[in-house]
# Entry
Amino acid sequence: MEERIPMTLIHRLTPLALALLLAACATTAPPPAATAEPAALPTPAPSVEAAPVTEATTAVPVRTMASELLEDNLRPGEKIDLDSPDASADLWARLRGGLQLPDLDDDWVRKAEAWYSARPDYVERMTTRGSRYLFHILEEVEKRGMPAELALLPFVESAFVTHAVSSAKATGMWQFMPATGRDFDLKQNIFRDDRRDVLASTRAALDYLGRLYKQFGDWHLALAAYNWGQGNVSKAIARNQRLGLPTDYASLKMPDETRYYVPKLQAVKNIVLNPDRFALSLPPVANHPYFLSVKIERDIDVALAAELAGLSLETFQQFNPQMNKPVILAAATQQVLLPYDQAGNFAENLSRHTGPLATWTAWVVPKTMSPSEAARRTGMAEAALRDVNRIPPKMLVKAGSTLLVPRAAHVQDDVSERLADSASLSLAPDAPPPGALRRVSFKAGKADTVAGVAARYKVKAEQVAQWNKVGSGTRFKPGQSIVVYTAAQPIVAKAATPAARPAAKGKATTTARAAKPAAPRVLAKARGGKGRGNVVASAAP
# Structure
C-alpha cells in the first residue's frame, strides 16, 4: 500500500531533509529531472582553469538532518495542510473580503474598465500570472493590516511580469526605480537585482506604501505618491492649501499618468468583485502557497537548478527573476522559489547529484586590463568573457572590478558574502597611445545623434557616448558641443542641416594632443517625464 507524504511536512525544508523524507515514504522512484532549456549565456569548458578567487568562504555547509524542519517565513510556527478546508478555499473570495478603500466612480475608472473589457485574452494572461504570487502578497498585506486592494497593485504596475522594465528604468513586479530600491534595501549589483525578487520586492513595496500612508494619512494619496513621488504629492497638496482648495486625490493637480493610476486600480478591483459584469473570467486560485522557498547551501548554476527541479529555464526564472548571471550565489541568495509540486523533485535530484553544482565563480581583477588579457588569464574566449560580463567594445576593466569566470575543477570554495553583495564592474575607455588621436569639437546640428556622429567619424557609438557623457541613443540639442577623437587628419564636421546654422559654426576645431576620453557613466539618466515611465518589457506575452 502506497504511503502518502503529509503535505504539512514539506514546506520550506532544506533540500536534503526533504529528499530524505521523500525517499523514506515513496514506493516508486521520483520522475527524472527534465532537461533544462539551454542557457542564453555561454557555458565554460570543464577543463578550463579559472584564476584564483580572491574572496571566498572556506567552510562547506553541513547538511541539515531530516528531523529539522524550517518554519514558514510568512506564518512562523504553522505548517501548510493542503487537505484542510482553508487550503481549498477560493483566494479571490478571501481577497474580496479584505477590500477597504473608498470607491472611485468617474470617467477615468470607466476608461480603465473599458480598456480591460476589450482585452479578455490580456486579462486572462495577466490574472494567470498573478495567481502564482497572489497568496504570498495577500498574506503579507493581511499581516500588516493593509487594504487588500494593495495585493492587486502589481496588475497595474507590471501586469505581474517579474522582469518588466519601464522606459524610466523602473524594474520588477512592483516597478522600483534604482534609487528607491536602494532606499528599501533592494540589492542591485552585477550578480542580482532584488527589484525583480518576488519576496524582497514585495516586502519593500509594502514597506514603502506603509511609509507613504503614514505620511499622508490617505491611501489614495499614498498610491499617488508611489507612482509620482512623495515630494510631488506634497507640493501639490501645499499648492491647494495655499489656494484654499481641497487636498484629496481627485482635487490635486497631477500628471495624467498619476491621475489615471488609482482609477486603473479601481477598475481591477471592480473586475475582481464582479468579473461577469465585464464579460471576463478569473482563473481559480487556491488558498495555499503556489510556491515554496527552498534553501540553497552551495553556489549552483541557474540552468542546473532548473534542470534538477524539472522546470524549463524560462519557468524557473519566472520564480527567480533576480539573477543577473547564470549562477546563483548561496551567500547572497539563500533560497530559491519553486512551484509547490517541483520542490520535492529539486530536493531529491539535488541529493543525488554527483557532479559540480557551479561552473562559474567570481574573480577580482588585480589591475586595470583589457578584456583580452582578462580572458587569457581565466582561460576564456574573449567574446564569451565580454558576453557574460556585458563589457562593451573599446573598454578596459578597471582594477578591483569583479568578473564572472569559469570555475576550475579544483576550486571548492563558494563566493563569499562580502563579494556577492558588493561586487561591481568599473570600465574605462581604452585610450590609444598619446599623440595617436586628434580631438575634434564642433556644435551639433538639428539632426545630430550619437549614432550619426559615430558613423560620420567612423568610430563606435559607445565611444561617442562616453566622450560626451551621454547615452548611446541620445539626440544632441542644436548648438550642443560635441567632442570626437579621431585618427584621421583634421576634419570639418558636416552639419546635419546646413541651412539651420551659419557655416562657420559647423566647422570642427582640432587640437593635436593625446585623447583623454571622459570616464564612463555608471547609470544613464532616466528620461520620460516625472513618472516612472511606461513598461517596456511586454506585460502580455
In short: The longest helix spans residues 198-216. The CA atoms of residues 319 and 337 lie 6 Å apart. Residues 1-74, 490-530, 536-541 have pLDDT under 50 and may be disordered.
